[in-house]
């Protein structure tokens, strides 16, 4: 999608230059005021992932989703500073993408979960129940 969007952006720039040369400054069409923005992910949508990279990422994600390892962890040894850094980065990426990678839940839900996890990491805590993660607000 990023490649297509980049082509649209380039085509728009060429159209505006050509129009400016041929007609002078004669005003704008209604859509010309809409700014096209390329998200910064994947080097501003110029990097194409190798199919093997995609497969490895998918498999790691699916293993994490399906795993029950988190239930058996020694949470007293949790690394909250690392969790805070990772939650901040994950939330930043979600906001840059503007769309969720895993479509089983809405983008808004992923953002909410990221905020809850970041809040808990800042408090040196972890959610103690599923409700602690699925909370759609941060009310203390």
Overview of the molecule:
With 140 residues, the protein is mainly α. It has a domain at 74-140. Helices cover 61% and strands 0% of the residues. The chain has helices spanning 2-23, 41-45, 51-66, 69-72, 80-97, 107-122, 130-134. Helix 5 (80-97) packs antiparallel against helix 6 (107-122). 4% of the residues are buried. The model has no long low-confidence stretch (mean pLDDT 79).
Structural class: mainly alpha
Low-confidence stretches: none
| Fraction of residues in β-strands | under 5%
* Estimated radius of gyration: 21 Å
- Would you list the SSEs in sequence order as H and E? HHHHHHH
Instruction: Give average pLDDT, whole number.
Output: 79
Q: What is the CA–CA distance across the termini?
A: 40 Å
* Number of E-type strands: 0
Sheet of most strands? none
Number of helices: 7
Any idea what the shape is?
elongated
Percent helix: 55-70%
List keywords for this structure.
140 residues; 0% strand; 61% helix; mainly alpha; elongated
Layout of secondary structure:
Elements lengths: L1 H22 L17 H5 L5 H16 L2 H4 L7 H18 L9 H16 L7 H5 L6
Helix pairs in contact: 5-6
Brief sketch in words of this structure:
By secondary structure, this protein is mainly alpha-helical. It is built from seven helices and no strands.
């Amino acid at each position: 999608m990023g490649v297509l969007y980049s082509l649209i952006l380039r085509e728009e720039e060429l159209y505006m230059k050509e129009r400016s040369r041929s007609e002078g400054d004669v005003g704008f069409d209604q859509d010309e005021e809409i700014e096209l923005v390329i998200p910064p992910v994947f080097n501003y949508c110029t990097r194409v992932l190798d199919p093997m990279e995609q497969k490895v990422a998918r498999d790691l994600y699916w293993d994490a989703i399906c795993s029950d390892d988190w239930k058996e962890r020694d949470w007293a040894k949790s690394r909250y500073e690392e969790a805070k850094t990772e939650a901040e980065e994950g939330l930043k990426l979600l906001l840059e993408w503007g769309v969720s990678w895993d479509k089983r839940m809405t983008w808004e839900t992923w953002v909410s979960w990221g905020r809850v996890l970041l809040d808990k990491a800042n408090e040196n805590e972890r959610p103690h129940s599923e409700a602690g993660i699925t909370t759609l607000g941060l009310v203390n």
